[in-house]
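Changelog note: in this version the structure field was regenerated for every chain. One regenerated record is shown below for reference.
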Amino acid sequence: MPGDHLLAKDHDTVPPAPDRRSLARWVGVTGRDLRDAAYLLLGPLLGALWVAVVGAIQVSGIASRFAPLGVAFFLLAHLLLRPIGRFERLLARTLLGHDVPAPAPVGFRRSERTRWRWPVDRWRWILAVVRDAHSWRVLAWILLRLVAGPVGATVALAYTMSPLLLAAPLLPLADWLSGGFALSTPWTGWLLLGPVAFVLIAPLLRGAVRGLAGWHRRLAGWALGPGRREVEAAVLARAVRAEEQVRIDQELHDSIGHLLSMIVVQAGAGAHLFDRDPDFARQALDTIGERGRAALGELDRIIAGIRDDGSDRFRPLPGIGDLPTLLDGAAGAGMRVRSRVRVPPVPPAVGRGVYRVVQESLTNAAKHARGCDVDVEVAADERVVALSVVNPLPRPRPGGTVGGGSGLASIRDRVALLGGRASTGPTGDGGFAVRAVVPLGAALPDGVSAVCRLAEGCDCLGCAVRRTVLG
């Protein structure tokens, strides 16, 4: 644009403004540095206090000649370590800005006996308190604060007192103003010695304070927070919860989503034929009620599984043996289904996966190919289970149902988890096919292609098995 060269010239010729805060940054004192210094100053004081309290209780227990009283003093001292650790975590969060997570509470397995339950539980509680790793780490922490604390406190004290060097020129100036002596050559050196010393020493002390505070932050995570086993257990529990959530989401999508899709299909068909075929509309309403009750039952079963309350309503998940019921239900909902299913008993995980794939395929056909024929084929040999769900693609209709593709992705993910492969997409003759092959063993057989070309005469493993078994 016109005038850009002028802007570039001005930008190139005008020198940058000097950073007047560079000296302040070099010798400046920030709030974070002051809080770090305060934490280091408190180190030996708190270390001595904690050691004195815990040590006094321990010595009292050792001096006692009554053994049960000595054990009680020992347990009391050990129990105090957890409140001390809680206070140290609060101090680290307030001054160091380091939020250390709290460890798990002391736990022990209660006895199932009824006669000796109380003494057994007390003994297990004593063992749990003594073996509490967090309390021992807190004890090591307060001993470290007592031993190494004076070093950090000395550095922090020197850092906080370093600004007093700036007052050095005021000493000879005060004497001169009082008439004690004139500014001679030996004393004029103080006019520069104090500020120069501050400029040189303050950054070094600040770096030492930051380094010691950072070392305390790293060590506080080990001594005051959860141990390695607790962290691993928490990570494992979080992974289990995430896996359970994914399983519940998948179950809701597969079971209740399928039933709701059938309800939508029946509602649309009944509304379309309400005047011309009242009997069919009445049957559609009955089917909607049946599907709604089935959806409520599925939701009840899933909730019972989440609560794990041992309810009788928690039925086993449907498997490959329930495919005829699924296909009959789809036909009863108004879908024209042609099926050929010939499958021997298979592992439960494989059977559940095949059932869900067929169910999701029928749901997609009900959404996107309403009123079209659906061909379902399921076959198996001693190696794999192969399935195929094919329907023609109708012409797009304005306002038709548009899916987000999550169902097809769910099919591919489910088959992949079982070690198989799935192909979804349009066929060469204008239809849409979902085909999958799932191994009965650990993996698909070697040397055989498992990628279906979604065409007649495909030589993939799934098509070969279906042709061999179904003829």
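Spot check on this record: The CA atoms of residues 41 and 154 lie 8 Å apart. Residues 228-272 form the longest helix (45 residues).
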